[in-house]
Structure formats: C-alpha cells, structure tokens
Design goal:
Elements lengths: L15 E8 L5 E10 L2 E5 L3 H8 L1
Antiparallel strand pairs: 1-2, 2-3
Amino acid sequence: MNYLKGGDSMDSKSVVGKLEQRTSKKGQPYTCLVIKLTPTYEKIVFLTNAELELLRK
C-alpha cells in the first residue's frame, strides 16, 4: 500500500478508500467515504448527495 508521507507530492499518490454505510449516535444511517491514510488511521469524509451519486455509478 502507498501511504502519503511528509514531503510527498499530492499530485501522484493513490489512497485506499471505500464507501461505507454507518449509523450515527442518534441511530440515523448515513454514507461516508472512509480513506485509509495509514494502517492505523482512517479519515472519514462526508459527501454531498451529488458526490455520492457519482461514486455509486
């Protein structure tokens, strides 16, 4: 896996990510993009409905 490191160019790196269905603390379902930045750290990205539609196709 190729993880970003300090000083790396953002122009040529790939990251691992997946769409996930999750449930909020209030019990509401939502979809988010989970990006694996390192083996132990994930970044959760909340997308607009339009962005989700583009990724689902």
